[in-house]
């Protein structure tokens, strides 16, 4: 069986199906992001991560492109989230709080189907970023040194 080619038409068809099933569209995604990041910027744990954002409107536009690509299959985002988050010194507590606040926001703003759609993606994103940014604290493996003969 041959893989289905990734085309703009296919992405548009997938996006239309997602919109029909969840009620999500680009305007709704942006509104949810504005609500979420507005709260995140005020959060005692998460807020400091946004202190360096100089142009909030440009940042929201970039986040909206990212989330539209992730949630609506638009293919509009061309960035590197891992590198963007690397300088922030995030901890597991940051990811847990981010997901908690994100879940509260999407459940308040979206249909149950839309909230679940966004949450499934948010959980994957958080897991991927956390695994990529936070080194595992593994014990040092001691390799026996061979005695000289």
Which key features would you list for this structure?
63% helix, 6 helices, 149 residues, single chain, mainly alpha
Q: Secondary-structure map with pairings?
A:
Elements lengths: L7 H15 L3 H17 L13 H17 L8 H5 L6 H18 L2 H22 L16
Helix pairs in contact: 2-3, 2-5, 5-6
Outline the structure in words.
This protein is mainly alpha-helical. The protein is built from six helices and no strands. It has helices at 8-22, 26-42, 56-72, 81-85, 92-109, 112-133. α2 (26-42) packs across α3, α2 packs across α5 (92-109) and α5 (92-109) packs antiparallel against α6 (112-133). It is globular and about 75 Å long. The protein starts with 7 loop residues before the first helix and ends in a 16-residue tail after the last helix. 18% of the residues are buried.
